[in-house]
Structures are given as structure tokens and as C-alpha cells.
């Protein structure tokens, strides 16, 4: 295998050349692929089990314009893993930066490759138990040009938005679907 750096800016593009064993036996020809290198990220599903509410953020995502009529997406809290940071540290940092929230407990859900046909990026998904009554307003870091609006909705409303396509980004869809299957482990008698 060989790897060549093609571009380094806000993102990085690398070219890989490799061969692999074939299922039928023997070896493939040399395969050339460009890989979008971004690093890994942590995604946090802020959930209030007492109120049975989810905290979502709304922010600009320029690539969304390629397939939708809006650059504004409803998402879970997320951020890139910086060198030396644990996934839990990223989760807590991003909860505060993007939603103004602390969490009283955090559980790891899973990790997954975002789009393995084109990028090496892996998301680490957590549920963070929060007090949704403290979530409101506008957030984000000025030096990152973030303009983030916080939304608090019922778990059922968030799931309805997934089903109707209002929420259409993979990390949020996966997080909300996971919550619908697992919310009862976090709820008191208030969850129905």
C-alpha cells in the first residue's frame, strides 16, 4: 500500500494505492482511491429522562445545500477529537460550547464509520443525561464561526422528525433511533 497527500487545508485529501486478496482467490489489480481525512468526532445525544426531552442544536452545514434547499440542520451535539483528549472530555466540552449544558452522567452507545467509501472518519456516540430546562439560547464559538440555536423537544417529537425527514443526518437519526429503543433504562415513572 502507498499513500500520497493530495491536499491539506481545513480538511485533508489523501490518495491510497493498494491490492487485496480476492474472495475467489488471487489478488486484485492495483486500486486507487482518494480518501477524505478529517479526524474522528464525538457525538452526544443530550437526553433529559425526567422530562423525557431531547436537546437538539440547529446550525449551518454548507454541504447540505448540495442535496437540500437549506443549509440549516437539526443535529445532536458533536465535535472533533483533539490530540490528547478523551472521548468523554470532547463530549463534555461540546455540550457546554454548543448547548450550554453539563451532564450528570454519560454512557457510551457505539462507534461507526461515517462514510467508509470515502472517509476514514469515525463517530463515537454517547448519551448524556442533562437537565433540559437549562437548555436554551444561542451558542457556539466565535473563532469557529459557529452560530448555534438550541431546541428542546419531546423524545416523541424528535422521533417524528426522524420519520418525516426533518432530521436527515446520520448521527442524529442513529442517536434518536437508539433512544427510542433504550429510553426506558433511563426513565423514572414519567416516561411513557
From TrEMBL:
Q: Does Metal-binding count among this protein's keywords? A: yes
Sorted keywords for this record are: Hydrolase, Magnesium, Metal-binding
Q: Which GO terms describe its cellular component?
A: cytosol
Protein name in UniProt: ADP-ribose pyrophosphatase
Co-factor(s):
Mg(2+)
GO BP, one example? nucleoside phosphate metabolic process
State the family it belongs to.
Belongs to the Nudix hydrolase family. NudF subfamily.
Q: Which reaction does it catalyse?
A: ADP-D-ribose + H2O = D-ribose 5-phosphate + AMP + 2 H(+)
Q: Gene encoding this polypeptide?
A: nudF
Q: Which organism is it from?
A: Shewanella aestuarii
Amino acid at each position: 500500500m502507498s499513500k500520497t497527500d493530495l491536499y491539506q487545508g481545513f480538511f485533508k485529501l489523501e490518495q491510497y494505492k493498494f491490492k487485496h486478496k480476492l474472495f475467489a482467490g488471487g489478488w486484485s489489480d492495483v486500486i486507487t482511491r482518494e480518501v477524505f481525512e478529517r479526524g474522528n468526532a464525538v457525538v452526544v445525544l443530550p437526553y433529559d429522562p425526567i422530562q423525557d426531552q431531547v436537546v437538539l442544536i440547529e446550525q449551518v452545514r454548507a454541504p447540505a445545500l448540495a442535496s437540500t434547499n437549506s443549509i440549516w440542520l437539526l443535529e445532536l451535539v458533536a465535535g472533533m477529537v483533539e490530540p490528547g483528549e478523551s472521548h468523554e472530555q470532547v463530549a463534555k466540552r461540546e455540550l457546554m460550547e454548543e448547548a450550554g449544558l453539563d451532564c450528570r452522567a454519560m454512557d457510551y452507545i457505539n462507534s461507526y464509520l461515517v462514510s467508509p467509501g470515502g472517509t476514514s472518519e469515525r463517530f463515537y456516540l454517547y448519551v448524556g443525561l442533562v437537565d433540559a430546562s437549562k437548555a436554551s439560547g444561542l451558542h457556539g464559538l466565535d473563532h469557529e464561526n459557529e452560530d448555534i440555536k438550541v431546541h428542546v423537544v419531546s423524545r416523541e417529537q424528535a422521533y417524528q422528525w426522524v420519520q418525516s425527514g426533518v432530521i436527515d443526518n446520520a448521527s442524529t437519526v442513529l442517536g434518536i433511533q437508539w433512544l427510542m429503543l433504550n429510553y426506558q433504562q433511563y426513565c423514572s415513572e414519567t416516561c411513557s
